[in-house]
Design goal:
The protein is of the alpha+beta class. Among the domains are: about 160 residues, 3-Layer(bba) Sandwich (FAD/NAD(P)-binding domain), CATH 3.50.50.60; about 120 residues, no CATH class. The protein is built from 22 helices and 24 strands. Strand 7 and strand 8 form a beta hairpin. The two termini are about 30 Å apart. About 50% of the residues are buried. Pathway: Plant hormone metabolism; auxin biosynthesis. Keywords: Auxin biosynthesis. It catalyses: L-tryptophan + O2 = indole-3-acetamide + CO2 + H2O.
Length: about 700
């Protein structure tokens, strides 16, 4: 999903500066080592005890059931964690069922399509926008499993002649030199290439609250001019990012985790000192031992994220910055560009493709998964080299010439499969309970499912040896009379689910009859990026598609307190606020005249805390939660019979890959408890080999 923006050019210094080969280290591996070193004794012993209490293996469990076709795993939720869990199990020949409460799969991956959308009409094919996740870094080693999944799905879909279901990636234009900025009642907006030395009216002399020393142009001997305020994050984040690049990766992570009890705001105003600015320090700022003033922290929060968002963990913010560096080209360390991709014709096609494969008897083959890993450089090819040349990129998303081809093996033809339903829509799980007497006292899980039947509904009870529950933590408040979703969870698990911090998010999609932004931006076919302001709508995300259309859709995106306040309005009032924010950035355009009018689902769509998200758009840990909650979220409950999954159970919050990693961990837990070492090896060959914390030790 990605929540950080880094739209001020000078604030990009820490992700576009020095890069070395060691920057390819895995944040997952670093957190794994930290977790094991600091919490390994309790964490490992709990897993060991759980696994020792179960003498089951897959053959014994199946002998206790009616047939080998009887599902062993019940999966709650049809988002990416649930879908990916199913795809792995399917590839290993283990039966399962997926229950989704709504009428679509994807969870927080959800595309809005106008009622006038027509993919075959150039003028209406652009009438859509991403309610949920909308982009992924193209080259991040930690995030390549997302592209691997798409390639693996395509192999199955092609084999089954479901060509129309196959998925492709197109370029997502993240930024440009001509994207607009406007703050603090500036007389007019400016463009990004002119923003580096502009104080944006934050200085006291122009009505702001920053002492002028922070926003007065200066330079070092022989260096380029700069504003001191724009160098702060380089010094805040730089030591940690440099450590990840240049030092032992695990030691660097340990260094970062020492500050897990601080929020980003707390670190800026209670840890970081003026003397830490080094060569950028000026005595006019204050004494060297002083911390950053409130006005400086406010400026950085305003330009970087959203109102109140610096209340999240300092570690979270640094991890997000590290993830962002994965948007850069690892094959050419001199390449300063950011590479991001999005799903062609809408992200909803991605989970829909997952469902199409899950509802086949046979899914991904070992050869499919292995080939896909080679295609994107997850593993080396037969010649011992890594490259990147997936065959599902549109022309605009092709990698630069400095990226070597992957030379994967030829695809296997395989055999088409017949249908087998495993994904059940409009099936709302309302209760999950452990029963130690199930399966001849081996224990298992019983779930109650509310199934829509015509104008009514019925309650169906299901039993499984294992359950993987993938709902956002807020969705475990079922709202059912006299029935809790979970009962008898351990104290640590119940607390982790209750306390795990989620970030509110707001999006709006507004259709315009003419693309005034493209005409004024003069970048019609190469993207505009993101426009920003301090108005409540915060960001305008320009479309990376639909260049041939006369009109188009602008997407408004904000988080935290800005999102809460926008969400408190009625739907039409939200659109009105967005229009005012767009007009603020475009005083030279007839924004209201170009507006296609307020017609819900045809010209407009707003989203805030969708019911299925359970009160927050994505996990974003607060101070101390990586240290105190994370290992609990990963640990199975009820002697291993219940696994919790979802992007909160990952170090990659707000990204699709977080959901995938958590699903891999849940399946691995089940296979380990069943003693299925050969199936674990097969899983690693097909889907890649993850380490803890994404795979429980």
């Amino acid at each position: 999903m990605s929540y950080l923006s880094f739209n001020n050019p000078n604030l990009k210094r820490t992700i576009s500066g020095k890069r070395t080969e060691s920057s390819k280290g895995s944040m997952r591996k670093a957190f794994s080592d930290y977790l094991i070193k600091n919490h390994g004794e309790n964490y490992a012993s709990k897993l060991k005890n759980q696994r020792a209490q179960s003498k089951s293996n897959i053959a014994r469990l199946r002998s206790l059931q009616k047939s080998s076709d009887t599902p062993l795993v019940g999966i709650v939720g049809g988002g990416f964690a649930g879908l990916y869990s199913g795809l792995i199990l399917q590839s290993l020949g283990i039966e399962f069922e997926v229950f989704e409460s709504s009428d679509r799969v994807g969870g927080r991956i959800d595309t809005w399509y106008s009622t006038k959308y027509d993919s075959k009409d150039p003028n209406t094919a652009c009438l859509y926008g991403e309610v949920g996740g909308m982009r992924i870094p193209q080259f991040s080693p930690d995030m390549l499993p997302v592209q691997h999944l798409g390639l693996s799905l395509n192999a199955v879909l092609k084999r089954n002649k479901m060509i129309d279901k196959m998925v492709a990636w197109r370029k997502f234009y993240y930024n440009s030199d001509v994207q607009r900025l406007r703050y603090n009642n500036m007389k007019a907006p400016i463009i990004a290439k002119n923003a580096g030395l502009n104080p944006l009216n934050f200085g006291k002399d122009t009505g702001g609250d920053l002492p002028m020393v922070w926003v007065t142009e200066t330079s070092l001997p022989g260096g380029d001019p700069y504003l001191p305020i724009n160098m702060v994050l380089e010094k805040v984040n730089g030591p940690f990012m440099d450590a990840f690049r240049d030092e032992d990766f695990d030691k660097a992570f340990d260094k970062l985790m020492k500050f897990d009890n601080y929020s980003m705001w707390g670190y800026l105003t209670n840890v970081f000192k003026l003397e830490d600015l080094g060569e950028y320090y000026d005595p006019k700022m204050g004494k060297k031992h002083h911390h950053l003033p409130y006005s400086v922290a406010s400026y950085l929060e305003t330009l970087n994220v959203g109102t109140g968002m610096y209340a999240v963990s300092f570690v979270e913010m640094v991890l997000a910055l590290y993830d962002w560096e994965g948007s850069m080209n690892p094959y050419d360390l001199e390449d300063p560009n950011i590479y991001m991709i999005t799903m062609n014709k809408g992200m909803q096609h991605f989970p829909d493709a997952c469902r199409s494969v899950l509802d086949l008897q046979e899914g991904v083959l070992p050869e499919d998964g292995y080939r896909a890993q080679v295609e994107i450089g997850m593993i080396e090819n037969a010649k011992g080299q890594k490259g990147y040349s997936p065959d599902n990129l549109t022309k605009d998303a092709q990698p630069p010439s400095s990226v070597p081809p992957a030379h994967p093996p030829k695809p296997v033809e395989g055999q088409p499969s017949h249908k087998k339903q495993r994904v059940f829509m409009n099936h709302k799980v309302i209760q999950v309970e452990h029963d130690p007497l199930l399966y001849d006292t081996e224990g298992g899980m019983r779930i109650k499912v509310k199934v829509a039947k015509g104008t009514g509904e019925e309650i169906v009870t299901k039993e499984y040896p294992y359950v993987i529950s993938t709902l956002p933590n807020g969705a475990y408040l079922s709202g059912e009379l006299k029935t809790n979703f979970f009962d008898h969870l351990s104290l640590s698990k119940a607390r982790a689910i209750r306390e795990c911090s989620y970030m509110p998010s707001f999006k709006a999609f507004i259709t315009f009859k003419t693309k005034f932004w493209a005409t004024l931006g003069e970048r019609q076919d190469v993207g505009l990026g993101v426009g920003t302001s301090d108005r409540s709508n915060r960001q305008i995300v320009y479309p990376s598609y639909g260049y041939d259309a006369e009109g188009g859709v602008l997407q408004v995106y904000c988080w935290a307190q800005d999102a809460e306040r926008m969400g408190a309005l009625t739907d039409e009032e939200r659109v009105n606020e967005c229009l005012k924010g767009i007009a603020y950035l475009y005083p030279d355009a007839d924004v209201y005249g170009s507006f296609a009018g307020y017609h819900p689902e045809e010209t407009t769509k707003t989203w805030f805390w969708d019911n299925h998200a359970g009160g927050g758009a994505f996990a974003l840990f607060g101070p101390g939660q990586f240290t105190n909650l994370y290992q609990t979220l990963l640990t199975p409950e009820f002697d291993g019979h219940l696994n919790i999954a979802g992007e909160c159970c990952s170090v990659h919050h707000g990204w699709i890959v977080g959901a995938l990693d958590s699903a891999y961990n849940a399946v691995n837990n089940i296979l380990t408890q069943m003693g299925e070492t050969e199936k674990i090896k097969t899983m690693e060959k097909m889907w890649g080999r993850l380490t803890a914390p994404d795979v429980a030790i």
